[in-house]
Amino acid sequence: MLEQLRQNAESWGIKIAFGIIIVVFIFSFGLGGLSDKKEPVVAYVDGAPISAREFQKAYEDTITAMRRQNPGLTAEELNTPQFKQSILAQLVNTKLVLASADKMGLVVSPAELRALISSIPSFHNAQNTFDSAIYKNALAQNHTTPERFEAELKSNQLVQKLQAMTTVSSLLTEPEAKGLFQWARETVRMDYVIFPVKDFLDQAKPTDEQLAAFYESNKERFKVPARLRLEFLPITVAELAAGQTVSDEAVLKHYESNPDSFLHPEQLHARHILLMVPPSATKEQEAKAEADIKNILAQAKKGPFEAVAKKFSQDPGTAPTGGDLPWFSRGMMVKPFEDAAFALKPGQVSEPVRTQYGWHIIKLEASRPAGKVPFEAAKADIKRRLAEEKANEKVNEILDQSLDQMAAGVKLEKIAKDLNLATRKSELMDAAMVQRTFGLKKEAVESLFALAVGAGAKTPLAMEPSKGYLLAEKIEDQPESVLPLDKVKTEVLAEVKAQEARKLAMDKAQAVLAKLLDPATAQQAQAGLKAELKTTPPLDRQAAIAQTGGNPQLLMGIFSAADNNWLKTPFEVPAGVALARLNERIPAPEEVWEKEKRFWTSQGSAAFRQELFNALLANLRASAKVEIVRQDLVN
Questions:
Q1: Number of other CB atoms surrounding residue 35 within 10 Å
Q2: What is the 3 state secondary structure string of 103-121?
Q3: How confident is the model at residue 82, as a pLDDT?
Q4: Is 461 exposed, middle or buried, given 0-12, 13-18 or 19+ CB atoms closer than 10 A?
Q5: Is residue 274 within 8 Å of 360, Cβ to Cβ?
Q6: DSSP string across 466-486
Q7: What's the confidence (pLDDT) of residue 27?
Q8: Fewer beta carbons under 10 A from the terminal one: N or C of the chain?
Q9: Omega before residue 81 within 30° of 0, cis
Q10: Is the pLDDT of residue 20 over 60?
Q11: CB-based burial, 94-117: b 16+ in 10 Å, e otherwise
Q12: How would you class 571 by CB atoms within 10 Å of its CB: exposed for 0-12, middle for 13-18, buried for 19 or more?
């Protein structure tokens, strides 16, 4: 198994964290016991449905969890077909595993479930005991119910029981664990010289024929996609809620009738500044980030904090609002951040706090002890929710009215006016932007582009995720086109020059390498490289990824080198072409093994368990019938 792990780790496609093995298997999604059979179904697993609501909840829960743990994630990264398909794959896996657990007779008793829920600190009161009111309120704040939460928790426990049963014999032996430790903790120093592309740009003199040939073979890169401009009217709960009237009496009645919904644990309101540090950062990058955050701290303490956060924070989700974070309680942030925030008093600014995402500076704006949200503080949120409830009841009625008018040829502006709403006009958008802006399915976007100018969509277009519907008319159309060469000549010239310069850099590197490998010329060639030759600090495999410019062959060549001779081929790196050799191999420190023995045995065994469990999943998937009936929802 150890050899298999080593082979997999060498695969550039996997890019595992070489210093530490992290094994993650997530089953955090609710399953179909509570779904309405009338709901749309995304997929069937051996005849068992995965409902659209179930899929949507898993998708939204995962996004929430990932953004909480990694604030730097963008909406584009989380709204891709690959991401959605991975969510569906996890749901399919969970269905299969739960069915297997059922066949094996595994159960989670009510007593087990009660004990587990009672042990969760987020549901404890000031006396550190389980409090049912806090429990219900915490679930309400996360838009779920005790029944749904307990069903999900029960499913998770069944998965864990099955995993434990199928991987009971996966203990790694001490020699295997030590081999893994030695492989992961080994470091190297590397001598290298780079022949930069920029040094050869002046020598690159591409002809007009070369520019024309590059343009002709890369026309797709210079294509301007078809674009359109829409006049549109969203029919969504959020849009309609703005026009609903909710009296103060109704708000007060709701507050008084649902006292448990407004209980909360101790909470903080804070702002933060994030300076991101990638996991693969070198020691020099780490040192620079630490120096930068200290300089930013000096400015943050002078204030105003909000302005400093807008200027320096690298958290795209909060930087535009001055680092403002929503109210949070214990367990909602990563531990170092949470500990630092809860140690502050309102108005205080923390010292730099290091988490796995980088450096943070935190300013505590306000805190509130565990208790009940005052009516005045809850009033706006209650009014919004009641307005949305009223709007939700009217969506279908409004859609029916709109359909009748659209069928009669009534223009969108008139339909909006009759609804006491107003249409809006978009900018020119390509298909991807239309899909991203409105959350439409691919087929709906295609139908909009197929419209004639002045024509409207025949039916309301469903917006995802479950936001409502869109009424739209096309008001401008720009067909797909390719920019002519004279419009993109500067870009083409830069590309071709860079290609030619890289070829010249490769030619130079190969010529120098030939001399370095020839005993008759090696000494003279070595002397000629003295000024450009550099040596890295000790690198583990993860740090070496950054140092080698992400070139897997160079990475593997250095770590597998048998001696200190120059590697026998040049390597392309982002800056140019590199020659490299092993300077020093530094074995894993023996004294560290005794300290880390338990960790490597445990983590290696965890990797082996995961391997066994993945094999079980592969067998289950191979024999299962998985039918995706709504491919559009996962594209």
A1: 17
A2: HCCCCCCHHHHHHHHHCCH
A3: 81
A4: buried
A5: yes
A6: TTEEEEEEEEEEE--EE--HH
A7: 33
A8: C
A9: no
A10: no
A11: bbbbbebbeeeebebeeeeeeeeb
A12: buried
Is the Cα torsion angle 522, 527, 532, 538 positive or negative in sign? Answer: positive
Which pLDDT belongs to residue 14? 26
Length of the chain: 635
End-to-end CA distance of the chain: 37
φ and ψ of 316, to 5 deg: -65, -20
Average pLDDT in the chain: 83
Cα 95 from Cα 626, distance rounded (Å): 11
Going by C-beta distance under 8 Å and a sequence separation of 6 or more, which residues neighbour residue 9?
16, 18, 183, 541
Preceding peptide of 465 cis, ω within 30°: yes
Residue 582 amino acid letter: L
Any idea which residue has 């006016």 for tokens?
Answer: 417
Could you tell me the two tokens for 236?
A: 């969504």
C-beta of residue 470 within 8 angstroms of C-beta of residue 234:
yes
- Within 325-407, strands assigned E span 328-329, 353-355, 358-368, 371-372
Give the separation between CA 483 and CA 499, rounded to whole angstroms.
22
DSSP state of 537: P
| Cβ count within 10 A of residue 475 | 16
Query: Taking CA 224 as the corner, what is the angle to CA 219 and CA 230, rounded to the nearest 5 degrees?
Result: 160
67-126 pLDDT, tens digit each: 666 666 666 666 777 888 888 888 888 888 888 888 888 888 888 888 888 888 888 888
Cβ burial, residue 624 (10 Å; 0-12/13-18/19+): middle
Q: How far apart are CA 629 and CA 44, in angstroms?
A: 8
- By DSSP bridging, strand 353-355 and strand 328-329 are unpaired
Q: Kindly state the tokens that stand for 425.
A: 């006009």
Tell me the C-alpha distance between 127 and 138, whole Å.
17
- For 93, the token pair is 């896996």
Q: How far apart are CA 1 and CA 298, in angstroms?
A: 51
Q: What value does the mean pLDDT take over residues 216-220?
A: 90
Pair 54, 30: CB distance under 8 Å: yes
- The residue whose two tokens read 């560290």 is 592
User: What predicted TM-score, i.e. pTM, was given to this entire model?
Assistant: 0.48
- Of all residues in the chain, what percent carry a pLDDT higher than 70? 90
Check residue 435 and give its pLDDT: 85
Instruction: Give residue 378's identity as a one-letter amino acid code.
Output: A
Q: Is the pLDDT of residue 18 over 50?
A: no
Measured distance CA(103)–CA(371) in Å, rounded: 45
How many Å apart are CA 425 and CA 443, to the nearest integer?
Answer: 21
Looking at residue 566, the DSSP 8-state letter turns out to be B
Sequential DSSP letters for 203-220: G----HHHHHHHHHHTGG
Tokens 């009841």: give the residue: 393
